Amino acid sequence: MGRQSRSKRQKRGRAAAQLQAQNDFGSVPHSFVFHRGRGGRSLRQLVADVRRVMEPYTARVLRVRKSNSLKDFVAVAGPLGVTHFLVFSKSTASINLKVFRLPGGPTLTFKVMEYSLLRDVVSSLKRHRMHEQQFQHHPLLVLSNFGLQQIHVKLMASIFQNMFPSINVQRVNLNSIKRCLLITYDAETQLLEFRHYSVKVVPVGVSKGLKKLLQEKFPNMSRLEDISELLVKDINLSESEAEQDGPHNVTELPQAYAGRGNVKAQQSAVRLTEIGPRMTLRLIKVEEGLAQGNVLYHGFIHKTEAEVQELLARKEAKLRLKAERRQQQEAAVERKRRQREAQREKSLEGMRRKQQQEDGDSGAEDPGAPEQDAAQEEEEEESDAEHYRREVGEEPDRDLFPERSKRKRLSSGPSRLRKRRRRIPPEHPTASNPQPTAPGTPRRPRGTGHKLQRGAGAAARPRGRRKLLPKGKTIFQRLGRARKGKR
User: How many other C-beta atoms can be found within 10 angstroms of the C-beta atom of residue 378?
Assistant: First the structure.
C-alpha cells in the first residue's frame, strides 16, 4: 500500500509549526566565536570547545580568513541575527577574551588566567556522559555571587544572561535541559570560574540494585543464586554508582523526565558531570561601543574625575579635528570632480568646433578653385612649349609635353620638381636615311657613339642635336640610332 497523504489540517498544522519554529529561532540571541591574530593549536581547540558550549545558537563551522576585519563580521551579523561576539586573541604574555554586544556595545575584555580543554576534562573522568542529543538544546545558565552593587559586576551579569535564551520557569520543558553552564564570581580575587556540566536525573528511594535494573546496562548476576540477592545486597557497583545522594541534589520532579523511574511527583536526584572546557577569567576593562569608546571600568588603572573629564575633552577635540579633515577631503574631491567635468566639456567643445570647421570647408568650397589650378597648369605647359619653340625653332612633338593629370598644388612652400620621361627627339633630316654599309664593314662598338672623334672625319659628321627640357636639363642623343624597341 502506498503512503497515505496528509490532510489539509495536518499540512496547515505542520506549516504553522515550522513558521513558529523559525520565529522562535530568530528571536533568540546568536553568537560568533572566533579568534584574531596568530594562535596555536591549543587556542584553536579552545575556540572549538567554546563553540560547543554555545550550541545550537552559534556558528559551528565559521571560516575566518586573515584578511577579515571586525567590520566584516559586524556587516554580516545584522542579517543573520547575531547579537554577541566572543573573540579570542593571543599575545606574548597571555590569552585574552573579548565579549562584544551588538550592535552598539559595550565591550568586555577578560584575561584567561587558566584553561583546560574539553578532551583534558573528559579524559580525567572515570565515566563521562556526553552525547550529541545534549547539544540540541541550549545550556541552562547559572550565575553565582553576582548580586553585588558594583556597576561592572552588574554589567557582566547582564551580558552573560543575554547570551542565552531566557527560560520561563512555569512553561519550561525539563527534557530540554541537558546541560548546565555555571559562572561563579569571587569578589576577593575578582576571578570568574567558567564550568560546563552534563545533567543527569536518577530516581531515589530505591535500592542500588533496583537502580541497576532500571538503567540501560544490566548487571552481571553470574555469582548470584537468586535475583533477590541483587535487590538486597549492593554488589558489583562502581564508585559513581555508589555515590550517596542527599538533600543537596534531591528534588521532586514537577513533570516526567527522560529516563527510567523519573516520573512526576517522585523524588529524583540531579547529578552533574563536568564535560569541559574549563576557564578562569579576570575582567580587565569595560568599554563603550565596539572597542572604540570610553573606558567605563579598568581593573588596574583608576583615575579621578578630573582626569576622566580631561580625557573626554581630548577625545572630543580629536573627533572634531577628524570631522574637519573629513569635510576638507570631501570638498577637495568635489572640487577636483568639477575641474574634470569642466576640462571634459572644454575638450568636447573644441572637438565639436574643429569638426564644424572641417565640415564647413568641405561643403563651402569655392567652385572656381579647381579651374584656377587647371589654368595655372595650362599656363605652365604653354610656357614650356614656347620655350622649346624659341630655343629649337621647331614645333614640339605631342609626346614631348603630354597632358598631365590635373592636381591641386600646395599654395605654400616651394614647388616640387617633377620627373619627366625621356623621349627621343625627331631625327636629323640628313640622318633619316642612312647609307647602307657594305657587307663586312666593322660596326662601331657600343658606348662610343656619344663621343665624337676629332680630326678630319669629325667635321663631316653631323653633330648631335640636343633636346632642351624645362628646368635647365639637357640630354644628348646619338644620331641615326634610337633606343632599343623605340624606332
Answer: 12
- Compute the Cα dihedral for 386, 389, 395, 399 and give only its sign: negative
Q: What are phi and psi of 49, to 5 degrees?
A: -70, -40
Cell of 202: 536518577
**Of 113, 120, 83, 70, nearest in space to 95 by CA:** 113
Are 273 and 197 in contact by the 8 Å Cβ rule? The answer is yes
pTM of the predicted model, to two decimals? 0.58
pLDDT tens for each residue of 41-92: 999 999 999 999 999 999 988 988 888 998 999 999 988 889 999 999 999 8
Output DSSP code: residue 58: B
- Rounded CA-CA distance 160/192 in Å is 12
Model confidence pLDDT, tens digit, residues 417-441 = 566 666 666 555 444 454 555 555 5
**What is the full DSSP assignment across 300-365?**
S----HHHHHHHHHHHHHHHHHHHHHHHHHHHHHHHHHHHHHHHHHHHHHHHHHHHHHHHHHHHS-
Instruction: Give the 3-state secondary structure of residue 230.
Output: helix
Q: Which residue stretches of the chain have pLDDT < 70? A: 1-4, 205-222, 227-246, 361-382, 402-487
